[in-house]
Structure formats: structure tokens, C-alpha cells
Design brief:
Elements (H helix, E strand, L loop, with lengths): L1 E5 L6 H5 L3 E9 L6 E8 L4 E8 L4 E9 L8 E5 L8 E9 L18 E4 L9 E3 L12 H7 L108 E5 L2
Antiparallel strand pairs: 1-6, 2-5, 2-7, 3-4, 3-6, 8-10, 9-10
Length: 266
């Protein structure tokens, strides 16, 4: 089995990593009663640095490696591999940075969380480390593996097998009901886009709707129709229902400001 993750997925990674020494560390535990060998690797698509370590059952070890990133590298990937079948291993930590020593507590180049949603009211262009959610749903490319893992096909999957970004154009946000019954129709919420997640779950949709109600019609029936030889006059028939005249616009909405919604990929 092999676990791999691109660690070059941030803007201007080439300016910061090409030609530099990158060091990485992982802490792995092997539970149970089996022993195995684990290989920890760094690859830039042209060169590879790896180290294979033997683990006894129940043992925890740290593996350290480094790689001089090629000037022509197209990516940088860290991977953990074991050829032992049916082995269980716990990856406690994985971290990497520029330099001869991997530092666990070194601040990240890009702040924030992968998959975090942000919003802007003064620009319609997302920052370099974010993707717009105010466009038609699009499939992520292979350059967004971390965001692809986060979305995990919740809003649908494209022809290449990668997750689709949600299309939030024109939607308001509402806090997840989570069984509180504040949203009385939470169980009937539908999937967004090509997703399959429905009901009282994060990322589902409700279309606009009025709360059921009636309008009372008040008529003055105290008037008298005078008798005589004139033609008959129209009068109110209280046995027949009537409708109010139409009023309002194309949707039900509160006062609002249009904003750009984005999602962090780096």
C-alpha cells in the first residue's frame, strides 16, 4: 500500500522550492502483532530520496529524509509505502520544509485551512490560494489533490474522477440545523449540483418558499340594494371564495449584499 500527497500545492511554489533542499519527517506506529518495513520518500518527479525502516509489532519510529529539489521539477510529493499485505500502521505526523532539518512547529507559508470558505465584497477576483464558488461547477484538476480529498466528491465527480467545486451563485448561507428543528424541513433538503448528500447535512440546499399562511378577505355587507324598476345590481356572494391581487417580485428575500464566495485550496 502507498499513501502519497503533493506538498507543492501553493502559489509560487517553484520560486520557493526549486533548487532548494527540502527535509521531511514522519512518525509511524505499527500496532498489533505484525512486523513490517516502511519506506518514506520525497520525489520531485525527477529525483527521489527515500529511506526504508523495519518495524517490530507495537513499535513507533521517526523517519527523516531530505531532497535537493531539481531545478526542472514539476511537483514535490511525499509518500509512505509498505509491501506487507494487510498491515495496519498509524501515521502520527508528517511535516516538511525548506532546510536541512524538518521542523514540526515551523509556521506554514499559507495560513488557513484547506476547504475553508471565505467571502469578499470589494473584489470579484479570488486570491491566488483560493478558488471562486461563484462560477459554474467545475472539476478540480490534478493540481488540487488536498482540496480534492477534502471535498471527496460531495458535490459530484467529474469525468477524470476528481471532485466538483460547489456552485454557490445566488444562494444565501444557513447554519446547519443538526437536529434542532429550527429548520422544519431539514429532512427534505436536497443535494447541491451533482452531489448525492441530502437531508439534514452540511452542504445541502433548500429552494425559496413562503411559510404556509392565509389572507383574510374583509367585505362590508351592510349596504342595501334599493328595490325598484332599475336593472339588478351586482352584490357580494359570500358563498364563493376570492383571491387577493398579486403583489411583490420574483422571489422572497431579505436585504442583502452580493459577495464573492471562495474556497481555500492551499
Amino acid at each position: 500500500m502507498t499513501f502519497s500527497q503533493a506538498i507543492n500545492e501553493f502559489p509560487r511554489w517553484g520560486d520557493l522550492l526549486l533548487g532548494k533542499k527540502v527535509s521531511a519527517s514522519t512518525v509511524i506506529q505499527i500496532p498489533g502483532t505484525s512486523s513490517c518495513e516502511v519506506t518514506f520518500s520525497l520525489s520531485d518527479g525527477m529525483d527521489v530520496s527515500s529511506k526504508t525502516v523495519s518495524f517490530d509489532a507495537g513499535e513507533t519510529k521517526q523517519i527523516d529524509i531530505s531532497l535537493d529539489v531539481n531545478e526542472q521539477a514539476k511537483n514535490l510529493t511525499v509518500s509512505i509505502e509498505s509491501s506487507t499485505s494487510d498491515i495496519v500502521l498509524y501515521v502520527k505526523k508528517v511535516y516538511a520544509n525548506v532546510g536541512s532539518i524538518a521542523l514540526e512547529s515551523l509556521p506554514c507559508i499559507i495560513e488557513g485551512t484547506i476547504g475553508e470558505r471565505k467571502q469578499y465584497m470589494s473584489t470579484d477576483v479570488p486570491p491566488a490560494e483560493e478558488l471562486s464558488l461563484c462560477e459554474a461547477s467545475a472539476e478540480l484538476s490534478n493540481s488540487y489533490t488536498r482540496l480534492n480529498s477534502f471535498l471527496n466528491g460531495k458535490f459530484g465527480v467529474g469525468t477524470n474522477g476528481n471532485s466538483l467545486l460547489p456552485d454557490m451563485r445566488g444562494y444565501f448561507s444557513r447554519a446547519w440545523d443538526n437536529g434542532a428543528k429550527i429548520d422544519p424541513d431539514a429532512a427534505n433538503r436536497t443535494a447541491l449540483g451533482e452531489g448525492t448528500v441530502k437531508g439534514d447535512n452540511v452542504g445541502t440546499v433548500e429552494e425559496d418558499e413562503f411559510k404556509e399562511h392565509t389572507h383574510q378577505l374583509l367585505f362590508d355587507t351592510s349596504g342595501q340594494i334599493p328595490a325598484g324598476t332599475a336593472a339588478s345590481l351586482a352584490s357580494i356572494n359570500k358563498a364563493v371564495t376570492s383571491d387577493t391581487e398579486k403583489t411583490g417580485g420574483a422571489e422572497t428575500r431579505g436585504k442583502n449584499i452580493s459577495e464573492l464566495y471562495t474556497m481555500k485550496w492551499s
